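Subject: Sanity check before I submit

Could someone independently write out the structure tokens for this chain? I want to compare against mine line by line before I put it in a report. The sequence has 417 residues.
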Amino acid sequence: AGWGISNKAQGMFVLGLPYAILHGGYLGLFLIIFAAVVCCYTGKILIACLYEENEDGQLVRVRDTYVDIANACCSPRFPRLGGVVVNVAQLIELVMTCVLYVVVSGNLMYNSFETLPISQKSWSILSAALLLPCAFLRNLKAVSKFSLLCTLAHFVINVLVIAYCLSRARYWAWDKVKFYIDVKKFPISIGIIVFSYTSQIFLPSLEGNMKQPKEFHSMMNWTHIAACILKGLFALVAYLTWADQTEEVITDNLPTTIRAVVNLFLVAKALLSYPLPFFAAVEVFEKSFFQEGSMALFPNCYGVDGRIKSWSLALRCVLVVSTLLMAIYIPHFALLMGLTGSLTGAGLCFLLPSLFHLKLQWRQLQWHHVFFDVSIFVIGSICSVSGFIHSMEGLFEAFNPVRLPPIPQNISSNRAF
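---
Independent answer below. Compare away.
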């Protein structure tokens, strides 16, 4: 369970953290710590919402999923509204995660082989072609094998990047780490940092499958402490090495010889990471629209023999292609990650767990728990709205750059005056 949370919290998205330090300075480092503390707390209270006390005063697990918690909060007036909201947020989060893996794969391959006459969009298409077999995934056993290989690739990447940064330690630009923030870009950094910690979607299922669920709290503590330390060091060391030249994806700053090697491992890691959010998204789709018995909108995806029906397989392929199309038309890794983190990451990690905890556990809560929940909800709302607005502005500027009018050349100075 601990390694699962660690892998989720220290995945591909640590590559955008030095970019967050670029626009946030020391406040960005503080937010890496703050986000770890808050996400650890909200993960615990989310799991607390799965339990209720029985007549003997013992805690009994009465709910199984995030959706069950949401439905319990909205009952009896709107028994399914909460589940719909959570399902939509989960789908956006998971699909956008898949899109980010395709974006970063195309970006890395393009920057690794700049001499080849292949565009970034073409590299993204080639990456998506390799991901089409994900449509055949049936269970988490196959996904777990990809995750194991992903962990090995992540270890190699960290060693190579940090080793290069340490070799440049004598040139580190400590004076570039600022105490002031870029008001326009920093909200995007908040979304990046929040998105890098999102694991609440997987927590109910993970806790339910633990052999000793009582150790969930200690597992959350040490995994988030480890993630916080490693992310903070990685972001700071990388930013000190390149300072104001820090790119959206930090590996773009590496020298050409090292960059090609690291990028190949990163592409492998991105492609191996894709199956987990893709499989989770497929499960949400199937449970929401195809496997709810009398409430299902469409027929079951599986035949009597348990095999995937051909039309269902085609829909899975369409989902892969959809992530490719989004990656082609929104090829901005940091802005896209900041937008997703602000839109769904803050909601699933900060807002909803706090709101659900207050609703379901109100009678058992002490005053400091109420204070924490309300504070997290208010701060999360502000960060979410601000990050979403500035991420959208950043994407708008990226697609519509300001072009200055040409300066007249063939006119005299007096006439110009």
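---
OP: Matches mine. For the report I'm noting this point. The longest strand covers residues 51-53.
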